[in-house]
Amino acid sequence: MVNDLKTRIEGALDSIRDYLKSDGGDVRLHGVSEDGIVELELLGNCEACSMSHLTMKAGLEQVIFKVAPEVKQVVAINQK
Fold first, then answer.
1. Could you report how far apart the first and last alpha carbons of the chain are, in Å?
2. What residue ranges do the domains of the chain occupy?
3. What SS3 class is residue 74?
4. What is the pLDDT of residues 39-67, one digit of tens each?
5. 9: which of 26, 32, 35, 45 is 20 to 30 A away, CA to CA?
6. Backbone angles phi, psi at 73, to 5 degrees
7. Contact 59, 16 (CB under 8 A)
8. How far apart are CA 80 and CA 67, in angstroms?
9. In angstroms, rounded to a whole number, what is the distance separating the alpha carbons of residues 49 and 45?
10. What are the pLDDT digits (tens) for 15-30?
11. CATH architecture assignment, domain 2-76
């Protein structure tokens, strides 16, 4: 079950990875807790970008919630 969830989340992240890379950024799935919290690590320009909160809410969260409705929260472990 957890592997299936991670696979779906990775697929969702892959679907927007080109967008992130076009601005010099990327994202890595850091982990998924048993209580439905997805931890992401923002990489490259995404890590320090002042708009990273919008990328999280309007981009990353939305694609993850779409493929994994059981996820309760998406957090960036290194968001500034």
1. 32
2. 2-76
3. strand
4. 999 999 888 888 888 888 889 999 999 99
5. 45
6. -155, 150
7. yes
8. 26
9. 6
10. 999 999 998 999 999 9
11. 2-Layer Sandwich (3.30)
pLDDT, averaged across the chain: 91
**Which tokens in the block code for residue 24?**
């010099």
The helix (H) or strand (E) run that includes residue 6 is helix 2-22
Sorted by sequence, the CB contacts under 8 Å of residue 79 that are 6+ apart come out as: 42, 52, 53, 56
Amino acid found at 31:
G
Of 57, 61, 79, 80, residue with least CA distance to 71: 61
Residues 6+ apart with CB under 8 A from 16: 59, 60, 63
Residue 1, token pair as written in the block: 């079950």
Q: Which residue has the tokens 């929260």?
A: 73
Report pTM. Answer: 0.89
Only one residue has tokens 């981009």, namely: 59
